[in-house]
Design goal:
By secondary structure, this protein is of the alpha+beta class. The chain has two helices and two strands. The protein has one domain. The radius of gyration is 13 Å and the shape is globular.
Length: about 70
């Protein structure tokens, strides 16, 4: 769920501060100390951009690794 604190909300808070109080951050962790999970902190307009950005990122990862969409 992208609303409310996620497993790695503390990391998202740090990332947002380091990025100069960014409008939003999405932290995805694979195999971390709290297991795999994600946290989102974003103002509403930034949150609306996330699905498109995630699709772009997924396409880039597949292109870079030779993977294909399932």
């Amino acid at each position: 769920m992208a609303t409310g604190p996620g497993k790695y909300d503390h990391v998202a808070t740090i990332a947002r501060a380091v990025a100069g109080d960014a409008d939003g951050v999405l932290v995805i962790v694979v195999g971390g100390n709290r297991g795999s999970g994600f946290s989102v902190q974003a103002i509403p307009t930034a949150a609306l951009e996330l699905p498109k950005l995630l699709r772009f990122i997924a396409d880039q990862i597949e292109a870079d690794t030779g993977g294909e969409a399932s």
